[in-house]
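job 3f2a | input accepted
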Amino acid sequence: MDIKVDGKAKAMDVFSALDHKKVIIDVWSYNFKKEMEHIMDLVDDYPYIAMDTEFPGIVARPVGPFKNSQDYHYRLLKCNVDLLKIIQMGLCFCDEKGRVPPGGVCVWQFNFRFDLGEDMYARDSIEFLKKSGINFERHAKDGIDVMEFAEVLITSAIVLNDDVKWVTFHSGYDYGYLLRLLTCEKLPENEDDFFELLKTYCPCVYDVRYLMKSCELKGGLNAVANLLGVKRCGPQHQAGSDSLLTQAVFFRLKDLHFNGKLDEIHMNHLYGLGSRKAAVK
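job 3f2a | predicted structure (281 res):
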């Protein structure tokens, strides 16, 4: 597919022209290395990476006492990420103007090994993901091994790279699963150490849900996309389509409410987690 994009094109126009069947690549164990080679060739020129994950819900609640509500939310995140496995991760690549690579392919949806017969999950979350089109039989058979994924990702220039800008939406769990995967260890005991670890692997983070506070916008990803006139491309509640929509909303929001430019004060905050002190420490 050829999509012609000139230097003045708006991000909204670029994304609205995409066909999810042609721009989202499903990645399994058998094509993982090949697709990672494509990604590594792109990251220098398309360093804005929107991420979304799908995971098996909430199965545990932390036991207090807690210092405050933020402490509780981090403890909730930690105890579940430490127990559970990631199911999907979507990564969407754009340049600083929201333009996609030539040909239009800009999203890679990584499907991880997950076995309903062996792995822990919340039943309602799994039923929800099944209705969204996730094939758990295939995840058990052809899913990517998380250890192999981590080994390749560490050397890919996607993480540990000051030039990469990460874009997410209400993303504490997304980064929790990413850090768990990269370190092969449980998440840090306290939130400050979590943010320090995140800043090491992902030095520049933009959480769209946090940015919305400055614009007096509320709601979930689909709601704000509708408010901004951004159309979804692909099935809802799959990581590839959600990462693509997150990217489109981010650039639309940046153009409309921030005059196309974000300052450092907007970086490295995650909605619902951490004080400003912890986020920029």
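job 3f2a | DSSP finds 13 helices and six strands in the chain.
job 3f2a | closed
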